[in-house]
Amino acid sequence: MPAADRRADGAAASETLREVEAALDARWPEQRIAPSLQRIAALVDLLGDPQRAYPVIHVTGTNGKTSTARMIDTLLRGFGIRTGRFTSPHLDSMTERICLDGEPIGDQRFVDTWADVAPYVEVVDTTYPDTPMSYFEVLTGMAYAAFADAPVDVAVVEVGMGGTWDATNVVDGAVGVVTPIGLDHADYLGDTLEAIAAEKAGILKAEQTSILGVQDVAAATVLLRHAAEVGARVAREGLEFGVRHRDVAVGGQLLALQGLGGMYEDVFLPLHGEHQAHNAACALAAAEAFLGGGSDRLDPDVVRTALAGATSPGRLELVRRSPSVLVDAAHNPHGAAALAAAVGESFGFAPLIGVVAVLDTKDARGIFAALEPVLDAVVVTQNSSPRSLPAADLAALAAEVLGPDRVEVAARLDDAVEAAVRLAEGEAALGGAGVLVTGSVITAADARRLLGAGRR
Hints:
Layout: H1 3-25, H2 38-46, E1 56-60, H3 65-78, E2 83-86, E3 98-100, E4 103-104, H4 107-127, H5 135-149, E5 154-158, E6 175-178, H6 186-189, H7 193-200, E7 209-212, H8 217-230, E8 233-236, E9 242-249, E10 252-258, E11 263-269, H9 274-292, H10 300-308, E12 317-320, E13 324-327, H11 333-346, E14 352-356, H12 364-371, E15 377-380, H13 391-402, E16 407-409, H14 413-426, E17 434-438, H15 441-450
Parallel strand pairs: 1-5, 1-6, 2-5, 6-7, 7-8, 13-17, 14-15, 14-17, 15-16
Antiparallel strand pairs: 2-3, 3-4, 9-10, 10-11, 12-13
Helix pairs in contact: 1-4, 2-4, 2-5, 3-9, 3-10, 4-5, 7-8, 11-12, 12-13
């Protein structure tokens, strides 16, 4: 096909993709939940249960789900396994959520998948007129259909919220993974660790190998009780597997990981922070459980090569230099605490200026409290979401935690980044200034596009 024709086809696919995205955006948004598996169960039944065509590694938790899912995907592909991966939310395009062999499925394939699924979505909407299928439910059905059509050898599926009634939970994962649990989405999941853990425990199924990341005692008790009730085999970080040693290295960290089947020394992970080391340990244990039942050590060289190529966009991602600008999707106090520890450990910024925009349902005061030890000042702003907390309200919360002298306000993100860069350069010590943009996945996505790291 001539180059001009290929460009025309690509432009047409992109235009159609925008139409599909608009149709999906018009549905119930992700943050509006009607807890039930009825609608998604009806959809996959009409589609012929595509989620039964391949084994699934199911990932839940409060923070670290996406990074862990990406590392599991990377490890499996290192061993020649064809993967599907479903994660959320996306940074730039809906197509990122549905990946085949580590890459988004592409505009045209996304459009074609929607065309295949849309008639059945309409049937379900007619069946449940008071609660039509949500944006996330439809994308989940599309992912399962795309994986069956590919076909894939295994799907790595990240839970959207919770577990028990999450739309992804029409699968019975061969392996389940629970990353650390913290307080978030309290309006839907409950306001205690025990309540949240009970919801997330819903992905643990009979005869499954359940990989449990480091947990608070209250959450661990709930998870272990549920696993025993359903007959899941449990592997616990810190006991059956874990991080044995870690050193900060240029561009990441060097790890010694205890897997289910043995030790893996000299593993370079190009991601920053202790939390990413723990995510890597969970990912390795999940890959071991899937590939060999957890009893045999995988080829260490393959593991090293795979994890050396791990990526997690929007997670302490360097998107600009001079001064350095980092973008991170931390959106709750639990994630912000991990972010602060990672920045303090891996970077020696002097000063570090924050740019923060938070959604109105999040614990903004808790986020500022977690970040306060590492920020010299902060510029508060708003992101592109209509749910972004107004900058003036966010400034008042920031001033309560950091003091008014450390807080500036900018109505727009681009102005906020410019102000932060100006502050950083004005107070720089020996060229070691940095800017950290955080507070929401949407904030991270907006900043990546603004600074040229996102999809063009």
